[in-house]
C-alpha cells in the first residue's frame, strides 16, 4: 500500500477517525463501567485465523470414501445417464472417488437453510404487467378461432381440416442430413437405428 | 435326431397318429392328430383313406363332433372359462383400477415447434429443428394447442389452473431425440375433474345405474417418434410424430370392475371426439390406455398400505401397458386380477412392476422389473415460460362447447321417445349425420301435420324406426359398402328428408300399407343412387299403390274361405275354445296377398260368421 494519500482521502479519513474517537469518548462518559470492547475487535487477530477454507468443499484425503455409493449403484447411475461403464476396476475406483468428492460438495451446499424458499426456476418478469403479457386469452387466439366452424344442431365447434399450414422456415431443411444411417424406401426416407448387440 | 421305429412312422404317415410318451409307453396310447380325426372330408379334392393303415384302435369321429363333446364335458365339470358377465365380481377380493389415457390433440401444429401436425404423411417431412433436438434449437410454445386441451378438460369437468408449468421427464430411447420428454408433472393445467358413466355406457351391472369416476389431473405432453421395426433388429424412425401434443388423463383409482374400466375408456373417446379435442380413436392409435391394477381383501385392510390420489388402503399395484382396444383393456384387467389373487393366495408378494398384454393371451407378461425401473429425475424446464390462461378464454370455451353426448341422448329419449339403445345407435352412425337426418325428417313430417298437436314421442318413435332400421337395411348394387345411404355428417343422403317424411305421412294416415311403404322406400333409394328425381307420391301414383280398403263382401268372402278350410278349428271354437278365433283371424289376414286386411274388421267378420254357424247348427 502506498504511503501517499491524496488530500481528499486524507480529509475524509480524518473525519472518520474524529467520529470514531468522539463516539468512544461519548460512551466512556455515558457509562460508569468501561464499555465492553466488542466493536473494536482486534483486526489482526481476526484475520490471522481462517474460519472457513475452500478445502472444506473437498473430502478429507485421509478419510477413506464412504460406502454409500456401491458399485451396483454406480452402474445403475451410469445406465440412467447413458454413459459407458468402467472398463477396469481401477477406472471404477477412480469414478467412485470422483463421485464421492462431488457428493461431498453437494452435501456442503445442502447445509444452507432453504426453509420456505421457493426454488428459482427461471428469472422472469413476475410483475403484474409481466404476467399479463404472457397471459393467453381470446385476443391471442383470435386467428385460431377463425379457423373453426360450428356444426349441426348440437352447435359443436369443429376445426377445419385440410387447410394449408404455413411452415416456411420451419420444415424446409435437410432433416436426414445429420442421420447416422438412413434409408429410402417406397414410402419415404427414414432414419435407421440398430438395436441388436454389436 | 433319434431313429424312429418303422411302426411309429407307419402309424403317422397312414393314420396321422403321433406317439405321446417315451419308448416304453405302449403305442396304442398314441395321440391322434386333427388329420386323423377328420375321417370325412367335407370339401376337398382328396379321397379320404381311413380304411388304409393297419391297427387303428378306435373309430375316427368327425373333429367338429369331438370339439362339441369336449365342450359339453367341460361345461358339466364346471372348469370352463367363465363368461365375462360372471367374471366381474369376486367375493373375497376387491379389485381397484386406475387408468391413464394418452390422447393426441386435434391441432394444426405441434406443441413446441411450428411444424405441421400430420397423420399419415410422407415420413420425415414435418420436422422442425427442435423436434430432433438440434443443438441450439429452442422450444416455442404454440398457443393454439391450448384450445383443444382446454375443451377436453372442460368436458371432463376439471378445474383449470390459471398458471401451469412444464417439466422434463428424462429417459433415453431412440424415439425421443432430446433424451427427455416435456410434460407437466408438478403443475398440470387441469385438476380434480370427474366423468359420469351410466348403465347404457356399458358399465358392470354391479356398479348400478351410474357411477362417477374422479379425474386426478390432465396434463399436456409431447408425443414420441414412430418406429417401424424390421427383422434383423433394424428400426426405421419417422419423426413426423415427435412433438405432437398429447393430453394425459389420469383417473383416480375408483374403478372396481373390468367392464367399467373399458366403458370409461370408450366414453372418454366419445367425449373427446364430441368436443373436437381428439378425433383419432383407439383403432387408429390416437388414443392409448395404460392401466394400474391392484387387489385387496374385502374384510381387512391390514396388508394394504398403499395409497394414491388420496385413496388409502390399496394393495401393491402393477401397470399394464400396450393396450390397443377396449376389449383388450377388459381382458387384461381380468387376467391381471386373477394372477395377483393367485399369487397372494399362495402366500406370495406382488411386485410393483410394468407388464404387457398381447391380444389373445391369458396372462400379462413382465416388461420391466424393479432393476429396470427408470428414475425420471423430473425437473422444471427452464427454457419454457409458465402457461397463464386467461379467464375470458375459459369462459368462452365453456359457453360454446355445444350439446354434449349425454345431453343429446337424454333429449332423444325424453323428447323424441326413442329407447336409449336406439338413441345411442342413432348418434354413433355416420359421424352424427344420421341423427341430423332424423331430426330433419321429424321437422318435415310435422310440417305436413293435419292436426294441431302431434305427440312428438310417437312421431319420434315412428320415424326413428324408419331412419334407423328400415333405412339401415337398404342395399343396392350401386351403393357404397361402407355408407350405402351416402349420408354426410351434415345429414344429407340419397333420400331427401322431405321424401321420407312424405312417405311416412302417407303410411301413418293409412293411405298406403306398411308393405307398400317399404317397397316405395327401396324405389326411392334406387332412384337416389341413379340420380333420378322421384317423389314418394310420384311412385305411388305411377304404380297404383294407394290403399283401397276391402269391401264388406270381400271380407265375408275371405272369412268364409278360411272357415271352410279350417273346419276342425271351427268345431273347437263352437265347443267353447274361444281363443282359437285368433288363429282364424290370422289366417284371414294372411289370405290377402297385399296385406290389405285390417285385423279388427277381420275379427268382427269371423266372429259374425261363427255365430251364424252356431245358430245354424243349433
What does this protein structure show overall?
The complex is a heterodimer of chains A (198) and B (618). With 198 residues, chain A is of the alpha+beta class. Chain A has helices at 7-30, 43-48, 71-80, 89-110, 128-134, 142-146, and strands at residues 135-136, 148-151, 156-159, 182-184, 189-194. Helices cover 37% and strands 10% of the residues of chain A. In chain A, the strands form two sheets. In chain A, strands 2-3 form a two-stranded antiparallel ribbon. In chain A, strands 4-5 form a two-stranded antiparallel ribbon. In chain A, strand 4 and strand 5 form a beta hairpin. By secondary structure, chain B is of the alpha+beta class. Chain B has helices at residues 6-15, 34-37, 63-77, 146-155, 258-274, 326-345, 391-399, 405-414, 420-428, 433-447, 456-470, 497-508, 514-530, 536-543, 552-565, 567-575, 581-591, 599-617, and strands spanning 17-18, 31-32, 93-104, 159-160, 163-164, 167-170, 180-183, 190-198, 210-222, 226-230, 234-238, 245-251, 287-297, 306-308, 311-314, 318-323, 354-356, 365-368, 379-380, 387-389. Chains A and B meet through strand 1, helix 6, strand 2, strand 3 and strand 5 of A and helix 4, strand 11, strand 20 and helix 7 of B.
What topology does this entry show?
The complex is a heterodimer of chains A (198) and B (618).
Chain A: H1 7-30, H2 43-48, H3 71-80, H4 89-110, H5 128-134, E1 135-136, H6 142-146, E2 148-151, E3 156-159, E4 182-184, E5 189-194
Antiparallel strand pairs in A: 2-3, 4-5
Chain B: H1 6-15, E1 17-18, E2 31-32, H2 34-37, H3 63-77, E3 93-104, H4 146-155, E4 159-160, E5 163-164, E6 167-170, E7 180-183, E8 190-198, E9 210-222, E10 226-230, E11 234-238, E12 245-251, H5 258-274, E13 287-297, E14 306-308, E15 311-314, E16 318-323, H6 326-345, E17 354-356, E18 365-368, E19 379-380, E20 387-389, H7 391-399, H8 405-414, H9 420-428, H10 433-447, H11 456-470, H12 497-508, H13 514-530, H14 536-543, H15 552-565, H16 567-575, H17 581-591, H18 599-617
Parallel strand pairs in B: 16-17
Antiparallel strand pairs in B: 1-2, 3-12, 3-13, 4-8, 5-20, 6-7, 6-19, 8-9, 9-12, 10-11, 13-16, 14-15, 17-18
Helix pairs in contact in B: 5-6, 8-9, 10-11, 10-12, 12-13, 15-17, 15-18, 17-18
Amino acid at each position: 500500500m502506498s504511503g501517499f494519500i491524496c488530500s481528499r482521502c486524507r480529509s475524509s479519513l480524518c473525519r472518520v477517525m474524529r467520529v470514531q474517537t468522539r463516539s468512544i469518548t461519548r460512551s466512556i462518559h455515558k457509562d460508569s463501567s468501561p464499555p465492553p470492547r466488542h466493536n473494536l475487535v482486534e483486526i489482526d487477530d481476526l484475520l490471522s485465523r481462517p474460519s472457513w477454507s475452500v478445502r472444506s468443499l473437498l473430502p478429507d484425503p485421509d478419510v477413506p470414501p464412504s460406502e454409500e455409493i456401491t458399485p451396483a449403484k454406480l452402474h445403475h447411475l451410469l445406465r440412467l445417464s447413458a454413459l459407458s461403464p468402467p472398463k477396469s476396476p481401477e477406472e471404477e475406483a477412480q469414478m467412485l472417488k470422483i463421485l464421492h468428492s462431488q457428493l461431498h460438495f453437494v452435501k456442503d451446499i445442502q447445509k444452507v437453510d432453504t426453509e420456505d424458499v421457493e426454488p428459482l426456476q427461471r428469472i422472469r418478469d413476475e410483475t403484474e404487467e409481466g404476467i399479463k403479457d404472457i397471459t393467453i386469452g381470446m385476443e391471442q387466439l383470435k386467428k385460431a378461432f377463425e379457423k373453426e366452424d360450428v356444426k349441426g344442431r348440437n352447435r359443436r365447434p369443429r376445426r377445419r381440416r385440410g387447410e394449408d399450414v404455413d411452415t416456411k422456415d420451419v420444415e424446409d431443411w435437410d432433416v436426414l442430413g445429420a442421420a447416422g444411417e438412413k434409408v429410402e424406401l417406397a414410402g419415404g426416407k427414414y432414419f435407421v437405428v440398430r438395436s441388436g448387440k454389436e | 435326431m433319434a431313429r424312429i421305429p418303422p411302426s411309429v412312422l407307419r402309424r403317422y404317415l397312414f393314420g396321422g397318429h403321433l406317439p405321446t410318451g417315451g419308448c416304453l409307453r405302449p403305442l396304442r396310447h398314441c395321440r391322434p392328430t386333427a388329420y386323423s380325426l377328420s375321417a370325412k372330408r367335407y370339401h376337398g379334392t382328396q379321397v379320404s383313406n381311413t380304411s388304409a393303415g393297419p391297427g387303428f384302435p378306435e373309430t375316427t369321429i368327425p373333429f367338429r363332433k369331438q370339439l362339441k363333446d369336449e365342450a359339453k364335458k367341460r361345461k358339466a365339470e364346471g372348469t370352463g372359462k367363465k363368461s365375462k358377465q360372471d367374471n366381474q365380481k369376486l367375493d373375497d377380493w376387491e379389485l381397484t383400477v386406475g387408468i391413464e389415457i394418452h390422447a393426441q390433440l386435434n391441432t394444426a401444429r405441434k406443441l413446441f415447434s411450428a411444424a405441421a401436425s400430420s397423420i399419415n404423411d410422407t415420413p420425415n417431412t414435418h420436422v422442425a429443428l427442435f423436434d430432433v433436438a438440434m443443438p441450439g434449437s429452442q422450444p416455442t410454445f404454440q398457443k393454439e394447442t391450448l384450445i383443444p386441451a382446454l375443451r377436453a378438460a372442460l368436458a371432463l369437468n376439471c378445474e383449470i389452473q390459471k398458471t401451469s408449468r412444464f417439466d422434463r421427464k428424462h429417459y433415453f430411447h431412440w424415439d425421443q431425440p432430446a433424451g427427455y420428454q416435456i410434460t407437466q408433472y408438478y403443475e398440470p393445467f387441469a385438476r380434480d375433474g370427474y366423468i359420469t358413466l351410466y348403465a347404457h355406457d356399458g358399465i358392470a351391472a354391479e356398479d348400478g345405474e351410474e357411477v362417477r369416476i374422479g379425474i386426478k389431473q390432465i396434463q399436456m405432453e409431447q408425443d414420441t417418434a414412430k418406429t417401424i421395426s424390421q427383422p434383423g433388429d433394424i428400426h426405421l424412425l419417422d419423426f413426423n410424430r415427435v412433438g405432437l401434443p398429447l393430453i394425459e388423463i389420469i383417473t383416480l383409482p375408483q374403478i372396481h370392475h373390468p367392464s367399467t374400466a373399458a366403458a370409461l375408456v370408450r366414453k372418454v373417446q366419445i367425449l373427446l371426439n364430441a368436443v373436437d379435442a381428439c378425433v383419432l380413436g383407439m383403432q387408429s392409435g390416437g388414443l392409448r390406455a395404460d392401466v394400474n391394477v391392484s387387489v385387496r381383501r374385502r374384510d381387512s385392510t391390514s396388508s394394504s398400505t398403499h395409497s394414491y390420489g388420496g385413496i388409502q388402503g390399496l394393495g401393491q399395484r402393477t401397470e399394464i401397458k400396450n393396450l390397443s382396444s377396449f376389449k383388450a383393456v377388459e381382458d387384461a384387467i381380468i387376467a391381471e386380477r386373477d394372477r395377483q389373487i393367485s399369487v397372494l393366495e399362495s402366500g406370495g408378494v406382488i411386485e410393483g412392476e410394468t407388464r404387457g398384454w398381447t391380444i389373445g393371451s391369458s396372462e400379462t407378461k413382465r416388461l420391466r422389473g424393479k432393476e429396470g425401473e427408470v428414475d425420471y429425475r423430473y425437473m422444471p424446464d427452464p427454457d419454457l415460460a409458465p402457461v397463464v390462461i386467461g379467464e375470458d378464454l375459459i369462459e368462452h370455451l365453456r359457453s360454446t362447447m355445444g350439446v354434449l353426448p349425454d345431453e343429446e341422448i337424454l333429449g332423444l329419449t325424453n323428447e323424441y321417445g326413442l329407447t336409449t339403445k336406439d338413441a345411442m345407435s342413432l348418434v354413433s352412425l355416420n359421424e352424427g349425420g344420421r341423427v341430423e337426418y332424423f331430426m330433419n325428417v321429424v321437422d318435415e313430417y310435422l310440417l305436413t301435420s293435419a292436426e294441431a298437436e302431434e305427440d312428438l314421442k310417437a312421431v319420434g318413435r315412428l320415424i326413428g324406426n324408419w331412419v334407423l332400421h328400415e333405412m339401415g337395411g337398404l342395399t343396392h348394387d350401386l351403393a357404397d359398402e361402407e355408407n350405402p345411404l351416402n349420408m354426410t355428417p351434415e345429414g344429407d343422403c340419397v333420400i331427401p328428408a322431405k321424401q321420407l317424411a312424405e312417405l311416412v305421412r302417407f303410411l301413418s294416415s293409412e293411405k298406403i300399407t306398411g308393405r307398400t311403404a317399404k317397397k316405395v322406400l327401396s324405389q326411392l333409394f334406387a332412384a337416389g343412387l341413379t340420380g333420378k328425381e322421384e317423389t314418394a307420391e310420384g311412385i305411388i301414383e305411377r304404380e297404383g299403390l294407394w290403399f283401397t280398403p276391402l269391401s264388406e263382401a270381400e271380407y265375408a268372402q275371405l272369412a268364409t274361405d278360411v272357415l271352410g278350410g279350417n273346419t276342425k278349428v271351427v268345431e273347437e271354437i263352437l265347443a267353447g275354445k274361444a281363443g282359437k278365433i285368433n288363429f282364424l283371424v290370422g289366417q284371414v289376414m294372411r289370405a290377402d296377398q297385399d296385406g290389405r286386411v285390417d285385423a279388427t274388421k277381420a275379427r268382427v267378420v269371423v266372429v259374425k260368421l261363427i255365430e251364424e254357424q252356431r245358430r245354424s247348427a243349433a
